[in-house]
Amino acid sequence: MSTATHENFSAVIAARIESERHGLAARWLDRLVAVIPVRPLAVFPSEALLDHIPELIKEIARFVAAPEEEIAGNTFVVAKARELGELRHEQHASVHQLLREYELLRSILETFVGEQAEDLRLAPHLTQVIGCLRRINQGVAILTQTTVDTFVERYTQTIDDQTARLIGFNRMVSHELRQPLGALQTASSLLRQISGDTDAERRQRLVAAVERSALRMVELVSTITKMSGLTAPDDTKPGVQRISLITVAQEAARQLRDSAGERDVQIDVAPDLPDVTVDVGQLELVVTNLLSNAIKYSDPAKSQRRVEVSLVHVNDSTCTFRVRDNGLGMTPEQVHNVFTPFYRGHANRDKELGVEGLGLGLSIVQDCARAIGASIEVESTLGESTTFTITMPVGTYSK
Question: What is the DSSP string of 127-167?
Fold first, then answer.
């Protein structure tokens, strides 16, 4: 049986922790899955992310071996801990879960110290063991604090953003509903005052006003419902299915057939669009809103008005398609703000174009694109055309 000084004991244990960091990380993950009902891939969906834990364990080992250093000053450790805080926030974890995860890591490292002392037949003084364990606890505590602080910062920011958007949304809904409700109230009152068929033409105008206002309210409710669906719990969303992109585009075109006909806009769907595995509801919202936007902002001065859905390229992992029109087009400033909620680039031409809207359609498109793992780019030339290019995975989409 050998003896060890405080420094030597800490150095030996630190070396063993560093060399066994991957095994310790695996042990930690096994304990985590056993204690917390969560799948490993839900915590670390890639090897790169899983490598965070062995790297942090390695830094704790260095901290144990160098009592004069402070782990809080290690920018690498702080950066990795912040990345974990960001990741766990995106995965909708809780502070309690984070604390439990680090408590399990601390427990595993403490147990490992005892195991190594026995296996290596070390006989350290009690103060040496306490000193080593204290350094481990200090290291884990700093990691815990940094990760949780980052998590709370992101959570607080999310709440602030959601609150601001909710206030703006409520204000917008109140404003938008006031106009059709007022029109309905006025038209209904006037209709009651007209008796018989003494003024059939006026009655017809009032009935048309009622119908327009009712339709406007239906559109508002539909938009609100769509937005609510984007943040609904996963079990209420449509399932992921294998479906032809042609089918999705043709169904969107069918739904918009009347509005396209009113504006004499031709919708063309390319025959070579591939099959994709995707949340169909989210994809339908993307295509439908893009086509609807193209129809609304078609150029009445052009003799031929069209919008097309066509394939750019496809391979084993991704598919890129585009929705292109020859409508009004946009300025660079309008393109820059096109996905901003409540932004309407051509609002000044509403009366001329017969367009009404909330400025939420393209914001919904962007949210849906993110939900299915897609990216979306915009190119536009004022007075000529606008093209939305969507790149999305074609394989199995995992929520």
Answer: HHHHHHHHHHHHHHHHHHHHHHHHHHHHHHHHHHHHHHHHH
